[in-house]
C-alpha cells in the first residue's frame, strides 16, 4: 500500500477499506507516514467526508493505537458521559452521585482543565484531603461497592488522536464532522465505556456554533457508537450563556451539592436530569427515559444522591462535612457586586467572556503551567430572560486580590441588558437516541 494512492482515492471521494484506514492510522502513529502526507489526507477527508463504515474503522484504529482501560472487573454496564465543553459546566460532579444512586456504575476518568475553570479533577481538589490517585484494584473495588469513583487520567490513551489533533489544529482541518466524531468516540471507547451519553453544546460559548452543526456531530457520534457496539445517546444543549450560576472551582462544587439536594439552578438541574435519564436507561436501570427520570428525581428527594456524594468524598480522602456545610470549601478573601446600570431584561450573557472573566480572577489556567486559585470565580444572579432593576446585583465576584478591574470590566461587557422583554432560551434543543 502507498499513502499517495490512498490520498488520491479519498480526494476522488471513494470509500477506503478497513485495511486502508488501519494502514493510514498505524503508519502515522509510528511515524512512517510524514505530516505532509497526513495533512493532505486530512484535507481530502475534510472535503470528501467519510462513510459510516469508514468513521467506525477510523475510531477503532485510534482506540487501538494505544492503551485501553479494561473495566470488565466492574459489575454492570459502564456508562460514560462526554460533554463537548462549556462554561460553568458542573454536570459531571452532579451526574456521578446522581446516577450511581440509581445503581449505574460510574467509573470516571477525568482531566485537569485548560480554560475558564479547572476540570473535574481540579474541582474535586477544592475539597480538603480529596485525592484522585487510586490503584486499578482500589478503583474497581470502590466502584463495585459505592458505584462511583473518579480518578485522574493515566496511561497512553489514543496516541493517534493526540498526534492527529495537533496536526489538524495547524492545517485548518479541526472542524470536520468525521474527524471530530471519531476523535471524541475513540477517547471514550479507550477509557472502557460500554455505553456513552453525549452532551453536544451549541451557541457562542461552544465548539459547534449552530444547532445544525451540533446535530450533525451528535448523529455522527451516535452512529459510530452503533457501528462499534457501544450504545450511544446524545442531546444538543444550549451554551449561549453559562450553565448554572457559578463559574469557579469551589463555587461550582457548592452548586453541585445544592443541585444534589434539589436546590440547584433550574437549568443545571434539568440538564442533569435529561443526561442522567439517558445514562440510567443505557445502564439498564430503567426501560424508558420517563422511568429513569422518575428514579433520578426520587434519589434527589430522598437524599440518596447526596448520601452517595458524601460517601464518595469520604472514600477518596476528602472531608465529607462539606456536603452539609459548603462554607468549608476554600473561600475568597474579597467579594464585589456587579450592579445593573439600567433596568430591563437580560438579553445575553456572552458565555466565553463570562468564563474568561473567571479565568482572569484565577479560576482557570491560561497555560498548562498556571496555578489555579480554587476559591475564586463568580456567581451570576440573573440569567437570560430575567427582569432586572437599576442597581440590582447581576453577579458577585469572588477574588483573592483587590484589583479585579479587568475581570469586572469583561464581565460587565458580557451581560447585555435590553429595554425589550427577552425570552429565556431553550436549554435542551434535541434528544438523539439513535
Ligand atoms: N474535541 C475532541 O476531543 N476532538 C476533536 O476533534 C474536537 C473536539
Ligand atoms: Ca450568548
Structural features, described:
The chain has helices spanning 3-11, 18-30, 35-48, 52-63, 91-100, 120-124, 136-146, 159-169, 177-190, 211-227, 249-260, 266-282, 289-301, 304-315, 351-361, 405-414, and strands at residues 79-83, 106-110, 148-152, 195-202, 231-238, 246-247, 334-339, 344-349, 377-380, 387-388, 393-399, 415-418, 428-432. Helix 4 (52-63) packs across helix 10 (211-227). A 4-stranded mixed sheet has the order 1-4-5-13, with helices on both faces. It has a 4-stranded antiparallel sheet with strand order 6-9-11-7. A 3-stranded antiparallel sheet has the order 10-8-12. The longest helix has 17 residues, at 211-227. With 434 residues, it is α/β, with parallel strands linked by helices. It contains 16 helices and 13 strands. Uracil (URA) binds at residues 165, 179-180, 183-184, 207.
Task: Please tag this protein with its features.
single chain, 434 residues, alpha/beta, four-stranded mixed β-sheet, four-stranded antiparallel β-sheet, globular, binds uracil, binds calcium ion
Count of separate DSSP helical elements: 16
Low-confidence parts, pLDDT < 50 over ≥5 residues? Answer: none
Bound molecules: uracil, calcium ion
Q: How are the strands of the biggest sheet laid out side by side?
A: 1-4-5-13
Topology, number of strands: 13
Q: H/E series, N to C?
A: HHHHEHEHHEHHEHEEHHHHEEHEEEHEE
Q: What kind of sheet is the major sheet? A: 4 strands, mixed
The SS-based structural class is: alpha/beta
Approximately how much beta-strand content do the residues carry?
Answer: 15-25%
Cα shape: globular
